[in-house]
Specification:
Elements: E1 2-5, H1 11-23, E2 27-32, E3 37-42, H2 52-55, E4 60-64, E5 84-86, E6 89-91, E7 97-101, H3 108-120, E8 125-127, H4 145-158, E9 162-165, H5 172-176, E10 181-184, H6 192-201, E11 205-208, H7 215-227, E12 233-237, H8 255-262, E13 267-269, H9 271-275, H10 281-290, E14 295-299, H11 317-333
Parallel strand pairs: 7-8, 7-14, 8-9, 9-10, 10-11, 11-12, 12-13, 13-14
Antiparallel strand pairs: 1-3, 1-4, 2-3, 5-6
Helix pairs in contact: 3-4, 6-7, 10-11
Length: 338
């Protein structure tokens, strides 16, 4: 249930609503908007309580039931777009934020070269995997903490914030020491223990869409992060599994306007994991910016042929620089910049 307070309602009136909800056994989350406070009343049995229970309280403007399974990620709870700030970068504003780097951190030379190149081309966040969730247990699993140290070194040297994936819920604290944004991979979108731990860390998080999950399931998973009071949530569309087999995953371009319609959270697009092939990445990236994505996550490697992981989908430095120039024009044409 969503309780919207009248403009300028004082703290006492808001607190009366909160106390009433708590006395009935519900959980509560507040959205402190610029001129209005919205109180989300959460819990399995809200359906058994009349909206009048709250509508009669002083300072309450309206009470609505949210019929969707996700509550905190919904536009009903928060009408205005959320801006997520991470390491000095703002995601969800006018700027299209490009996060780029290697799929996997391989060694110091590789990471520093990519970091420098992507920064020079205009990327504002460096990506790099240290803990890699691989389809096969026999594939390279990443450099783990040694990789995180290299990532932190690149951040130090170049002043660029970094994003990396957390696979194990027990690793949240470790990775939080090195990263500005935690990434939840597609295979872990519904790992609820991981989401709860990341929620508690309050760190910015990129929640990638599970490749077999609906948008409703994705937004409901985002509620696990938001329920812990972590408001810095970014969504990441990275392609879903369909019957089409000419591409690794089918990028759901319509997820962008759908998310914008139903949620206040920023959404970025990963064209690399959808495409699975470098030649397809630029067109998907351009389409995503045109469709209103708040950012992109792109894999770049100094020498894709030699990459330990995902070389086929990695862009070279020159391809990345060319794509950035194209994206700049598209961003401008849709009232954004890059
Ligand atoms: C990645 O970004 O490194 C990755 C493994 O992506 P996904 O979880 O989308 O497959
Ligand atoms: Mn990859």
């Amino acid at each position: 249930m969503i309780v919207e307070m009248v403009t300028g309602a004082d703290v006492k009136k808001v607190d009366d609503v909160v106390q009433k909800a708590k006395s009935l056994g519900f959980q509560v989350q507040l959205n402190l908007g610029t001129d209005k406070v919205v109180v989300a009343i959460l819990g399995g049995h809200t359906g058994q309580v009349s909206t009048d229970t709250f509508a009669v309280l002083p300072g309450v403007e309206s009470v609505t039931r949210i019929m969707k399974p996700y509550k905190l990620a919904s536009r009903e709870f928060k009408a205005e777009n959320s801006l997520v700030s991470a390491g000095g970068v703002e995601i969800g504003g006018k700027r299209v934020v490009v996060m780029a780097g290697p799929c996997t951190i391989e060694n110091e030379e590789q990471l520093m070269k990519v970091a420098k190149a992507v920064k020079e081309s205009g990327a504002s966040v460096l990506r790099g995997g240290a803990f890699k969730p691989r389809t096969s247990p026999f594939s390279f699993q990443g450099l783990e903490e040694a990789g995180l140290r290299l990532l932190a070194q690149a951040r130090e040297n170049l002043g660029i914030p970094v994003i990396t994936e957390v696979v194990d819920p027990h690793d949240v604290k470790l990775i939080a020491r090195y990263a500005d944004i935690l990434q939840v991979g597609s295979r872990n979108m519904q790992n609820f223990t991981l989401l709860t731990n990341i929620g508690r860390s309050k760190l910015p998080v990129l929640l990638k869409r599970g490749f077999s999950c609906t948008i409703t399931e994705w937004l409901t998973a985002a509620d696990y992060l938001l329920a812990e009071g972590n408001t810095r949530v970014i969504l990441g569309e990275r392609g879903i599994r369909t019957f089409e087999d000419s591409i690794r995953f089918s990028l759901d371009i319509s997820a962008i306007p759908v998310i914008k319609r139903f949620s206040h959270l920023p959404v970025i697009v990963d064209p690399s994991h959808a495409a699975g092939h470098y030649s397809l990445v630029p067109a998907i990236a351009r389409a995503a910016v045109a469709a209103g994505a708040d950012g992109l996550l792109i894999e770049v490697h100094p020498n894709p042929k030699e990459a330990l992981v995902d070389g086929l989908q990695a862009l070279t430095f020159s391809d990345f620089a060319r794509l950035m120039a194209e994206l700049r024009q598209i961003a401008q044409s849709v009232g954004r910049y890059l």
